[in-house]
Design brief:
Elements lengths: L1 H37 L8 H26 L7 H17 L4 H26 L3 H20 L13 H4 L14 H19 L1 H11 L1 H6 L4 H27 L10 H11 L11 H20 L4 H26 L1
Helix pairs in contact: 1-7, 1-8, 1-12, 2-7, 2-10, 2-11, 2-12, 3-4, 3-5, 3-10, 4-5, 4-10, 7-8, 8-10, 11-12, 12-13
Length: 332
């Protein structure tokens, strides 16, 4: 089974990323030309704007890496946004309580993984569709975050927040060509996840479950264990994104993740991930997250309104899902 599935996994990883990458290049070219025409030399195609966009997309991109696993496995996680806010709020509370930075970081990641584990356990044992389970846990995690924060915003003392954490998601000076730390961490996580999907048995199991769960079960794939592992690993990425969120806000706001799950899911779908399962790629997801942020940056520089940005992204999502459904019908 492993030898026959390996080429199929590679085809899914490669073919699923070429389209989103080409679309990203086209979007960048469009806004680059439009900005140059409207604003003389323009500032869209500059190193500073590139760094700004990369930092602004980092939170969604990291959380979307975990969502990529979930969607490839044929699932969905509507609780990603509130779980992210729960992780950020937990970190803020831990720092304010005097736990120290290492313990606060572990708490943020741990609560993210615990949230993912609960999702995976409920979905696997109750045999309820992921949409319904994660819809319920989305509200539950929001409530837990509000309990921890006492229905307010948790603000640690500035002395409790180390300087390096504050700089984690900061855009570097114009004369510095390096990317921000959060971007490098995100890229490292992306490479690690891509390697897991490409080279490990676990990665092939994830694709097998998403392609046909019943067949995968008959072939000896431990479906329940893999599903729990998938959601727990997705929770790890959500926890990291929660740390990013805290570093950006310097506080824990229980409601800061509301609606963020839509952007996280959209990054995967725009990046070629199939809501039917069995298809998705790390490169495609990063391209999808980048595309949304490039559109937002380009529209801002062109003086276009936020509602128009939402319309553009909505059209792209519908187009991506339409193309995916056309692929499915063509293959069946």
């Amino acid at each position: 089974m492993q030898s026959t599935n390996k080429p199929a996994v590679w085809r899914n990883l490669v073919s699923g990323s070429l389209g989103p990458l080409l679309a990203l290049v086209m979007v960048i070219a469009f806004f680059g030309i439009a900005d140059t025409v409207k604003n003389d030399e323009g500032s869209f195609l500059t190193a500073q704007n590139f760094r700004t966009v990369s930092v602004q997309m980092s939170t969604v991109a990291v959380a979307a890496l975990g969502m990529t696993l979930v969607i490839i496995a044929g699932g969905i996680d509507l609780s990603a946004g509130t779980a992210l806010a729960l992780s950020a709020t937990t970190m803020a509370w831990s720092l304010k309580a005097g736990w120290g930075v290492p313990a606060a970081l572990a708490a943020a990641i741990g609560i993210g993984m615990l949230a993912g584990f609960v999702n995976g356990l409920l979905i696997s044992t109750l045999r309820v569709v992921p949409f319904i389970v994660s819809l319920g846990t989305m509200t539950a995690y929001l409530g837990l975050a509000k309990v921890i924060a006492k229905e307010s915003t948790v603000r640690p003392d500035p002395s409790q927040i180390p300087e390096w954490l504050g700089k984690l998601v900061s855009v570097l000076p114009k004369d510095h060509f390096l990317l921000a730390t959060c971007v490098w961490i995100g890229l490292a996580l992306a490479v690690a996840l891509a390697a897991v999907l490409r080279y490990t048995v676990f990665g092939r199991y994830v694709f097998a479950i998403g392609s046909n769960e019943a067949t995968a079960r008959l072939c000896g794939v431990p479906v329940t264990a893999v599903k729990i592992a998938v959601y727990t690993l997705a929770g790890f990425f959500v926890g990291i994104a929660g740390i990013y969120q805290f570093a950006r806000l310097s506080s824990g706001n229980p409601t800061s993740g509301i609606g963020l799950e839509l952007k996280i899911i959209a990054a995967v779908v725009i990046g070629g991930g199939s809501l039917s399962g069995g298809r998705g790629s790390v490169v495609g997801t990063l391209a999808g997250a980048a595309m949304m942020q490039v559109i937002a940056s380009g529209c801002t520089l062109l003086g276009l309104s936020n509602p128009l940005q939402d319309v553009i992204i909505g059209v792209i999502i519908v187009a991506a899902v339409t193309v995916d459904q056309w692929r499915v019908r063509r293959m069946s």
